[in-house]
Amino acid sequence: MDQITVVVLGDPAELALKKLDELGPAVRLSIAKTADGLAEALPEARILYSCIGNRQEIAKIVERAPKLEWIQSRSAGLDSFLTPELIESPIPLTNGSGVFSQSLGEFVIAGALYFAKDLPRMLRSKAEHRWDVFDVFELSTQTMGIVGHGDIGRAAARRAKAMGMRVLALRRDISPRPGDEDVDRLYATEQLHEMLPECDYVVATAPLTPATKHMLSTAEFAKMKPSAVVMNVGRGPVIDEAALAEALRTGVIRGAALDVFEVEPLGSESPLWDMENVLISAHTADHTQTWLHDSVAFFMEQFGRFVKGEPLKNVVDKRAGY
């Protein structure tokens, strides 16, 4: 094949990126943390693999790379990636959707079990050397509602259904698709308030767009059961964090299991840190031992499709934002 210039916006010291040397002698590879660091390769660059979702740097690359034919984002979320110029450009954009979903689905089940079995109470009793007998819930008697039934939502639904749970899911397009076999009932986006009162666990897995920012806020928490637990493994700002803290403080809902936040790292002044009814993960639910290598492997699979002229996976609707 003709020589293909691939530019990578990432850390050249990252060990996982060494795998890219296997793309072959026909590939000219350039890796840098900034557009300026990639400057020499940009005039001939045909592919951008972005491991750093920096909107400003990506805009510079797109502006300086007139031959760019395809952009792959390591992450699934694109809210820190898309620029108006990129949205309007004809360059196809693909993302990392599906690469990290399985671990996130496991975190959702861990969060459900954390509250169903009241693990905080068990840990307190153990620390106090106290024999404490109390009732627990069976997940098989409970309902999980998934807000944003994409790849992460499907991973959560599959595991919840395996635990015998009733599964509800909300998404923009409710036409049939793979994964619906794990859902007992589908809801359209405008039916959110209809779904929420049914749920023991409300799992936010929606992408962040102008339409989904603060999709779960005061009015939504008021629709939930007082025993409901809110989880977020999607994008932080989908949940109104201040409203969530207030709902937790006042007992409007029972608890929360959070892997993502409106601002990261979560500030030390956040009231969420000191709430006994909140499980906090520092955006580590998808940080498996192989997550960086898995993302590179997916890019290499995509590269193989590109050179063969085959359809790419995970092509993003740039206007929709996912």
Q: How much helix, percentage-wise, in residues?
A: 25-40%
- Please give the largest β-sheet: 7 strands, parallel
Look at the structure and give the mean pLDDT. 97
Strand/helix succession: EEEHEHEHHEHEEHEHEHEEH
Q: What's the number of structural domains?
A: 2
Count of DSSP-assigned helices: 9
Uncertain runs are: none
Using only CA atoms, what is the Rg?
22 Å
- Relevant CATH superfamily of the largest domain: NAD(P)-binding Rossmann-like Domain
Describe the structure.
The protein has 322 residues and is an alpha/beta fold. 28% of the residues lie in helices and 17% in strands. The chain is built from nine helices and twelve strands. The chain has a seven-stranded parallel β-sheet with strand order 8-7-6-9-10-11-12. Strands 2-1-3-4-5 form a five-stranded parallel β-sheet, covered by helices on one side. α2 (84-88) links the parallel β4 and β5 (93-94). The radius of gyration is 22 Å and the shape is elongated.
